[in-house]
Amino acid sequence: MSAKEITVALVGNPNTGKSTLFNALTGLRQKVGNYPGVTVARKSGRCDCGDGLKVELVDLPGLYSLAAASPDEQVVTDVLLGSLEGSQQPDAIVVVLDATNLLRNLFLASQLAELNLPLALVLNQADIAHEQGLKIDTNLLSQRLGGVPVILTSAWKGEGIASVRRAIAEVLNKKTKMTRLTWPSQVESALNTIVQAIQTDTSIAPSNADAQRILFSSNAHTSDRLGWSQSQRISVIRQARDQVRAAGFNPLAAEPLIHYAHLRKVLEGVVSGGAGKQGNAAALDRVLLHRVMGPILFIGIMLGLFASVFWLAKFPMQWIQSGVDFLKAIIAPTLSSTPMLQSLVTDGIIAGVGAFLVFLPQILILFLFVGILEDSGYMARAAFIMDRLFSWCGLNGKSFVPLLSGYACAIPGLLSTRTIEDPKARLATAFAVPFMSCSARFPIYALMCAAFIGPLYGPGWESVVMVGMHCVGLIFAIPTAFVLTRFILKVKPQPFVLELPRYQMPKPRDVLWRMWQNAAEFISKAGTVIFAITIIIWALCYFPRDAQMAEKIKTAEPTLNTQELQARTQAAMIEQSWMGRFGKTIQPVFDPCGFDWKITVGVLASFPAREVIVSTLGVTYSIGKGAEADSQHLRLAMQDAKWTEGPRKSTPIFSLAAVLALMVFFALCSQCGPTIATLAQETGGWKWATISFFYMTILAWVMAVVVYQCVIRLT
Amino acid sequence: MTPLSQLLPGQFGKLVSLNPDRAVDQRLMALGLLPGMALKLVRRAPLGDPLAIEFGGQVVSLRLAEAESLIVDVAADCPVQRPKNNS
Ligand SMILES: Nc1nc2c(ncn2[C@@H]2O[C@H](COP(=O)(O)OP(=O)(O)OP(=O)(O)O)[C@@H](O)[C@H]2O)c(=O)[nH]1
Ligand SMILES: [Mg+2]
Fold first, then answer.
1. Closest C-alpha to A603, from A544, A661, A523, A651
2. Domains within chain B, CATH numbers bracketed
3. Which residues of B touch A (CB under 8 A)?
4. Contacts (Cβ under 8 Å, ≥6 apart) of A713
5. What SS3 class is residue A119?
6. pLDDT digits (tens, 9 = 90+) for A630-685
7. How far is the CA of A425 from the centre of ligand 2 (A)?
8. pLDDT at position B40, please?
9. Are B52 and A285 inside 8 Å of each other by CB?
10. Measured in whole angstroms, how far is the alpha carbon of residue A258 from the centre of its chain?
11. Would the pLDDT of A47 be above 50?
12. Which one, of A487, A477, A466, lies nearest residue A410 by Cα?
């Protein structure tokens, strides 16, 4: 890649189809969804514009105005100014507009024209505009805007993509710029005042666009970037704003007022038809946002979502399980001549990674439903319904998407907090996200429910506990957020301005692709992190070996038959392994939660990635039982496990109290390296990531103790 | 002249004034909600807050507290323009 590579930025309002167009132009696959704020970071890819011209195309988050407020919007202004590290100012801009709402979309385009870069306009979603009976005279629009290419596309259907390629080549070639509006003379001179003052004060010549940001926006991003200090600017800005006032404008309202007035004229006669055609939103909203029906449907949808994740995933999970067992059965005999290798492959790798992969179907189905909700347009409505509840604890309806995504995985959830404008509200949301019961917690709940709750209390209680465990995190996140926003961060009441997009049939391609991307991440994690941790844990459980162990046991208890002897030997081996010794040393800490040393080992091994618990339990409990394990094996091994010493001797380790305590511990504990790293990245430092880690971990321990001690006394 | 927050669901109005110093209002202005713009209070959220308002062919949510300082002129015959971009 040479430094002189040509870059072209895709800019536009949220939800206009930038990512869809990006995918069509580059052949890549960016996340797409019918919710304002799907893309939250810059992504780039190569686009072929014909005649051997290849450009670097940059997909950006959507924004309504260059007066950026939230960090995802800030990314756009940084990219456009080339002030982002490692990037240069783009050579051209492709503005993506929603053809059904040109006036509003052109406001941003008109601001972008002030940057004085080559520019093309893509009017996307032409299919919808056509359905609504709108006719758009692109030639007239192009002519009014100084000859910039104006192209109608339906990016989703792949219509008009070739013209976009040609247009990019054309604007790069001819450097076509969009006509800028003529500012009223007082505003023009106010802008000049600012330009000149900056030039004298900093000896940098600011652009006109910079001067506009300083004059019209109440934030100080631009002045700070230019190094124009507070003391230097304060009187100049006041003077300039007085000039604007003299022209009859409130300085903070002047920009949209002047642009919109200009654009109304530009659009005169450009758009025709479309009157009287109602969109689909009104009719559906009447039901989905109804005072009574709305909440009922919302709760129904959420319950249905989680219930189907369970029941639908059941069958594929069984298939994967039998596949894993089959593999084990085939491989074990071929390695019987080398017991150590056999143990590594069957007890370590296959059991460990297999136990983890079993939960792939649940993750797939959860992401499928999240994708469907988002692409249909319902997600924004859910945020609308939930805003009141969230505002009570200082959050915002926009926290809903991060929190719901958190149920699949905390990391996309944390990234989607970028759409929240207020940094404190964003921080509070990010702090709450890791509490959501992510899919990595599924494995331990599912194992515990299937092994203990189901057999003992029936499938009814199994579901109740499952649902309950998914609420535990939420139940603690709410008061946490409340205290955090009210007393620690002191978040001011938040604005909640969210566009409610139109409804549409979820597009299978987009939804399935998103599901697959998330699944691929999960699988690659199984292939790398989980694989490595599995082997390490296996080794810690396998070594050191005591060759005389069998002899010693035989001498002590000569009545044992061969099978019993083998089992006893292996149990003794694991107990005196490194892991066994370590777990026993730490176990007193977890004793009040009812965890034995094997569970302790599992808990400790799970700090880098919590889903490791299942494979660790698989290793610690299955090595003691010989290689011929079957799918019921781990469950049986755990059901049989008894305390071997202390006051609880020969009572089951996995009593109801311990099972619940273990699940509550995993519901609350901060056990995910990537989440901590993302939290640090999103909150701009390790402070909050560290606080989150200790807070969640200590809370988990305390609650596990409370649960164990209460339940043990009640049962 | 009523605050937007007091409109009934389904009622139309014309924006008279807003408060450009506030971040919310700046956002709304960027969306095209400027004095003189026709708007409609579409509905309230099931819990009473926020509101959904329609203007310029789009539906946008807005909290009650913020709607209090948006002053509208309620007019019986002032329908919101459908998404005709030259409205
Ligand atoms: N009918 C129709 N829908 C489209 C078209 N292009 C995109 N969409 C849909 O519009 C929605 C938004 O598309 P995205 O590509 O995610 O939009 P974006 O501009 O990247 O959105 P943000 O990243 O949130 O700013 C998705 O549901 C797309 O399927 C189109 O040409 N026609
Ligand atoms: Mg996008």
1. A661
2. 2-74 (2.30.30.90)
3. 18, 20-24, 26-32, 34, 42-50, 52, 56-63, 65-66, 82-87
4. none
5. strand
6. 446 777 878 888 888 888 888 888 999 999 999 999 999 998 877 888 898 888 88
7. 23
8. 93
9. yes
10. 38
11. yes
12. A477
Q: Using alpha carbons, select from A670, A675, A656, A678 the residue that is nearest to residue A701.
A: A670
Q: What are the Cα distances from residue A346, in Å, to A19, A302, A458, A568, A609?
A: 44, 39, 32, 19, 21
pLDDT tens digits along A301-334: 988 887 787 778 778 888 888 888 888 888 888 8
- Atom 17 of ligand 1, residue of closest alpha carbon: A17
Residues on chain A touching B62 (C-beta within 8 angstroms): 495-497
CA A520 to chain centre: 15
Cis peptide before A443 (omega within 30 of 0): no
Distance A34 CA to ligand 1 centre (A): 6
Is ligand 1 within 6 A of the CB of residue A156? yes
Round to the nearest angstrom and report the end-to-end CA distance of chain B: 23
Q: Do B23 and A495 touch (CB under 8 A)?
A: yes
* Closest Cα in chain B, distance from residue A180 (Å): 18
Q: How many CB atoms lie within 10 A of CB A70?
A: 20
- What is the Cα–Cα distance from A21 to A415, expressed in whole angstroms? 22
A567, pLDDT greater than 70: no
For atom 23 of ligand 1, which residue has the closest CA?
A: A39
CA distance A316 to chain B (A): 38
Q: What angle do CA B14, B85, A23 make, to 5 degrees?
A: 125
* Three-state DSSP state, A217: coil
Task: Give the DSSP H or E segment for A423.
Answer: helix A423-432
Contact (CB, 8 A) for A433 and A410: yes
Nearest chain B residue to A136 by CA distance is B85
**Which burial class, exposed, middle or buried, applies to B61 when counting CB atoms under 10 A from its CB (0-12, 13-18, 19+)?**
buried
Distances (CA, A) of A182 to A2, A95, A346, A680: 39, 21, 75, 45
The answer to whether A388 contacts B86, with C-beta atoms less than 8 Å apart, is no
Which ligand is in closest contact with the Cα of A23?
A: 1
Q: Is A544 exposed, middle or buried (0-12, 13-18, 19+ CB in 10 A)?
A: exposed
**Amino acid symbol at A252:** L
ipTM: 0.89
Q: Do A385 and B45 touch (CB under 8 A)?
A: yes
Q: Which amino acid is at B78?
A: C
Say whether pLDDT at A183 is over 60: yes
CA distances from A57 to A47, A48, A119 (A): 6, 10, 14
* Residue A87 CA: distances (Å) to CA of A42, A75, A82, A118, B5: 11, 12, 6, 18, 45
d(CA B50, CA A209): 35
Q: What is the pLDDT of residue A630?
A: 43
Query: Which residues have CB under 8 Å from A214's CB, separation 6+?
Result: A194, A222, A223, A228, A233, A237
Tokens (6 digits) for A278 = 């109602």
- Given a contact cutoff of 8 angstroms between Cβ atoms, the answer to whether A456 and A656 are in contact is yes
Going from the Cα of A5 to the center of ligand 2, the distance in angstroms, rounded, reads 23
Model confidence band, residue A408 (pLDDT cutoffs 50, 70, 90): confident
Band the pLDDT of A240: cuts 50, 70, 90. very high
| Number of residues written out for chain B | 87
Residues 6+ apart with CB under 8 A from A503: A280, A281, A284, A376, A377, A378
Read off the tokens for B40: 């409609």
